[in-house]
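#help-structures

NK: newbie question. if I give both the sequence and a SMILES, will the prediction place the ligand too? trying with nicotinamide-adenine-dinucleotide
OV: yes, paste both and it writes out the complex. here, I ran yours:
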Amino acid sequence: MRDKISREHFLKTTAMAGAALLVSSLEGWAAATGKKLRVAVIGCGSVSNRYLPQLLSSQLIEVVSLCDIKYERAVAQNNEYKVKAQTYRNIDTMLKGVPFDMMVTLTDMQVHGELNRKALLAGKHVWSEKPMANTYAEGKALLDLAKSKKLRIWGAPAVVNSPQFAFMSRTIQEGKLGRIAAAHGQYGHTGPTWSAFFYEKGGGSMPDLGVYNMATLTGLLGPARAVMAMTSIVNPERTVDDKGKIKVEAEDNAHILLEHDKGVISHVMCGFNYFDPHGHEAGNQSLHSIQIYGDYGNMRLIGYDWETNGVMLDTSWDKPAVLMSAEKGGYEWQEGARVVGESIVNGTEPLINVEHALHVLEIIEAARKSSATGMKVKLESKFPWPVVK
Ligand SMILES: NC(=O)c1ccc[n+]([C@@H]2O[C@H](COP(=O)([O-])OP(=O)(O)OC[C@H]3O[C@@H](n4cnc5c(N)ncnc54)[C@H](O)[C@@H]3O)[C@@H](O)[C@H]2O)c1
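OV: that's the protein plus ligand as structure tokens.
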């Protein structure tokens, strides 16, 4: 029976079942198809080196297509990782080529929205690197489109998946820090050197770096109601591998204040001119990048929210801070596409939530508006919270 049910029949059946039945229809995936989730990766640059091993490690996923407008990159990654996929020069030929179920978007940030829309229109689920669209309105339209077609779309990052995020969330919910007042997150380095898009309009340090802290702080403290921000361009000219000397058009320095419920205020600072000799690993167990303050305690996330090394917890005047939750439990920041792909096959709901990604996108847009106008900007989006129950 399993072999007799075609994928087309399965999709037709689930399409008729309605949005409310989405999870149960997903449950039917493995039973109905008995097949792996077929994935197409678009964008075979730097980050694909992290994604491909993750996707290829899954028993439930098969990478069937690789695409890059710099075609030689698709071919090179196919060989490097022994993917045995079809390779394509653009999305249109890929959508007409070997059938697949989910597209993983790893291109320049500015084209994510347009590519994700094409994939949804062609009936594919989508995992997108951040941001999932250029504006909140464009992102929301993508979600509406996905829902209308009984498809799923998700956006990076995957920071809510780490055991450290779960520990911090529970610590707050159990009241161990008392009444929460304030939080801070920071993430910066001296900027990517390989591609111009990070510095062009639609790029910037907020969608590339600040996005992690925004996802973490809203994930821990709840949706933000309003934003005030200052952004700037510190270094107006850069030299990058793909275009040589370029003008920097997007913010390379940003400070964002978020207003949460119950008087909680958090702050994110991100930029492309932040010298940090400790690097991404933050191996020294005393270095933190996120701090949460309550009136009975505070905690510091050691390392970065995407590269977590533990949490230092202070709840006593007399006793020293304690290192908690240093185990990663297999968490890796590049796991998002694999995790949501496996959730489709298993019929489970992942912690990563598209409305959370959209909320962060609205924050980024609001921060730019606030900086340009000097005004506090109200937000309309929310997401299911708390993330960890
Ligand atoms: N590099 C990292 O370590 C890293 C980490 C986390 C997230 N990201 C995110 O991943 C995305 C990609 O970053 P990257 O560093 O890999 O950039 P990159 O420049 O190394 O790679 C992007 C690739 O996309 C291709 N591309 C652009 N437009 C395309 C289109 N229309 N169709 C097909 N291919 C297209 C480019 O030719 C290039 O090969 C960005 O959103 C970035 O913020 C990168």
